[in-house]
Write a structure and sequence with these properties.
Strand 3, helix 1 and strand 4 form a beta-alpha-beta unit. It is built from eight helices and 20 strands. By secondary structure, it is an alpha+beta fold. Helix 1 packs across helix 8 and helix 6 runs antiparallel to helix 8. The strands form four sheets. Strands 1-2-4-3-7-11-9-10-12 form a nine-stranded mixed beta sheet, sandwiched between helices. The chain is globular. Helix content is about 25%, strand content about 25%.
Length: about 375
Amino acid sequence: MRHHTHPLLSPVPGTQRALESFHFGPDDATRRVYIQGSLHADELPGMLVAWKLKQRLKALEEASQLKAHIIVVPVANPIGLDQQLMDIPLGRYDFESVSNFNRGYRDLTDAIAEGLETALTQDPVHNRDEIRRRFIAALDATQATSTYESLHLTQQRLACEADFILDLHCDFHAVEHLYTTPAAWPDFEPLARYFGAKASMLATDSGGGSFDECFTLVWEQLRERFGDRFPIPYGSQSITLELRGQQDVEHAMADRDAEAILDWMRYHALIDGDAPPLPALPYPATELAAMDFLRAPAGGLVVFHMAPGREVKSGDLIAEIIDPISDAVHAVRAEQDGMFYARTQRRMATAGMIIADVAGHHAHRSGYLLAP
């Protein structure tokens, strides 16, 4: 195991934060995996899973069983982790810029594409390596002007050469679910099975410049520009794993999630050893554009009638919003058949607040598909 410290741009004199990365397996391995936990710093299940992976990967490395270079960043957001307000951790948004930590990553496609045509050949491996080299150069040429931007650029630099990128998140109160692209689904469908994903939502571009898509969109856009003339493989495939809810920081769960990731690595021969037989997929993959955010029609107490993990039919009662002054009771119902996979932890809704998420089958949304 090699431990590297990556200093971030200091916001003011006398303060300094850094991103810590842990590297396992051969440095010259032809395949790479990048795993980070808790980019939203108040989502801690991923941090525990990443810590579990550190211990397991160290043992596997000592046994010479690693066939890929694997990078683990257990604390992906030291800025947000230090944001506390009146004893409440607030790690989703940067206090200084009021920006979501998982939005606004740099799209460097244009910089990578400049002059690329003359460097491409009919060899897909050459093309992949050339694009990666240009990706690194474009990141190195980008100047961070804030600690927030410095964090983003450091993460992108660590991950941009990886074949597989795993971003470990969680929701407020949820069952296992994930987000990836249609192109990456064949590679990650085995992980969805080992992980037990109750919902797997697919989109090529969900909007917002999230961490996982700042890599995959580069390859998608370059394939669109040059793919009819030159063979350009998918140099990076990314996935966001949602490890249930914020309170699910438990050894047994983290052990199971870490083992699911390791089994998936065995399946792809990134680690020596036989992968266990693939379990059944708990629920079929659906388009992210078919997902529904169910919102409170008015402010009031939130009383749920079911827990996440239930298949629902259109019209099923999921929650009520109760105004204790006027006695008004507003029903919140499923808008289509699907999987009810996540809900808010808050029990006092404001008008228009998202209180539940359902992975449906009827694609009806476009543009910005993510939650704020």
